[in-house]
Design brief:
Length: 329
């Protein structure tokens, strides 16, 4: 595995060319997007895509997102590019929204876990877009972490988690959005949110010309987005999502655990003594940007327990609360 920094123009060009060659040869390339780093393979090559599942230890029932450089390239992979898909693409691409539509036969079943729909995304990141141009094939890419672990927001996180399982890592520095894309089912007239993200449901509803409640996940949405099932986004440490008032009591209830094994992620300073006390940003975009790096840091600090102050239950915080709750299960 090699990590290539793609900051200056010359190294960038050589690294992108190599990434394109590796992808066309069926190898795995990790790359930055605006959300998290992806673990990419040629989406049209079933054997290459199999390598993604093997490298991550990912259950084969969990479908992958296919990344393309343009809306035009996305349309070419859709069997039925709906009006709602077009509206979402126009409003949010390139950007952190994945649009689920019926797939064309060129996409192997392994990409979609046997399903007849595919999640498509045009990422808003210059390195990702340049890599997709260079590859000249659509790139299937889940987050570049071992299955169930915290998604990577730096090249170092990818190297620590996947090591030699990946052939090349393009290092584009820390990602800016920080949590995974909003996944939206656009197979019908009204889009449905399958996984919340920093593009919030108001924005999705506005584009769809629908009421906010109409785009909410329906009760049967979970089986349609298998990645939402069960334990996910989990650090090694046990994570407890706690109301601010309850922090001292919950700390107390943990019993005689030494302070240095207990971390805290707070929205305002607290008198409590914690080994790793991190003051998190009080604004959701800034919070999301540092969330995963903070969880990785808590593991590096060998915390056994991390108490996380519960953010306010407003829609701007919904995706962050979703990830925290999954990490806490
Ligand atoms: O921001 C992101 O979405 C990142 C970057 C790399 O693009 N990717 C990512 O991929 O988070 P992954 O595989 O970790 O999560 C993909 C999610 C899963 O919850 C999966 O179940 C859902 O998208 N998904 C993918 N294809 C789907 C489909 N056809 N129907 C329903 N859900 C789908
Ligand atoms: Mg993931």
């Amino acid at each position: 595995m090699r990590v290539v920094r793609v900051t200056d123009e010359t190294s960038r060009r050589a690294a992108l060319r190599e990434a394109g060659e590796l992808l066309r040869a069926g190898r795995l390339v990790a790359f930055p997007t605006e959300t998290v780093y992806g673990l990419g393979a040629n989406a049209l090559d079933a054997r290459a895509v199999r390598r993604i599942y093997d490298a991550k230890g990912r259950p084969s029932l969990n479908p992958l997102i296919v990344h393309v450089a343009s809306t035009q390239a996305a349309r070419a992979l859709a069997h039925d590019w709906t009006a709602s898909a077009e509206a979402l693409a126009q409003a949010f691409w390139p950007g952190p929204v994945t649009i689920v539509v019926r797939k064309r036969g060129v996409i192997p079943d392994i990409v979609t876990a046997g399903g007849d729909t595919v999640g498509l995304r045009v990422p808003a990141h210059p390195i990702a877009l340049a890599m997709l141009d260079e590859a000249r094939v659509p790139v299937a890419a889940p987050s570049a972490n071992l299955s169930t672990q915290v998604s990577p927001t730096t090249a170092q996180h990818v190297a620590d988690g996947l090591g030699e399982r990946v052939d090349l890592i393009l290092d584009g520095g820390p990602t800016t959005v920080g949590i995974e894309s909003t996944v939206v089912d656009a197979t019908g007239a009204v889009p449905r949110i399958l996984r919340p993200g920093m593009i919030a449901r108001e924005a999705i509803a506005r584009v769809a010309g629908a009421a906010e409640a109409a785009v909410l996940p329906v009760a049967d949405a979970a089986p349609r987005s298998p990645g939402l099932l069960g334990r996910h986004y989990s650090p090694r440490a046990r994570l407890c999502l706690v109301e601010r008032d309850a922090l001292p009591r919950v700390r107390e209830e943990q019993g005689p655990m030494p302070d240095e094994r207990v971390g805290a992620m707070l929205l305002a300073p607290s008198a409590g003594t914690f080994h790793e006390q991190v003051l998190m940003p009080a604004e959701p975009d800034a919070y999301a940007r540092v969330l995963y790096a903070t969880l990785h840091a808590m593991d590096d600090a060998r915390c056994d327990l991390v108490l996380v102050e519960r953010p306010p239950a407003t829609t701007e915080w919904a995706a962050i609360i979703d990830r925290l709750e999954r990490a806490a299960t």
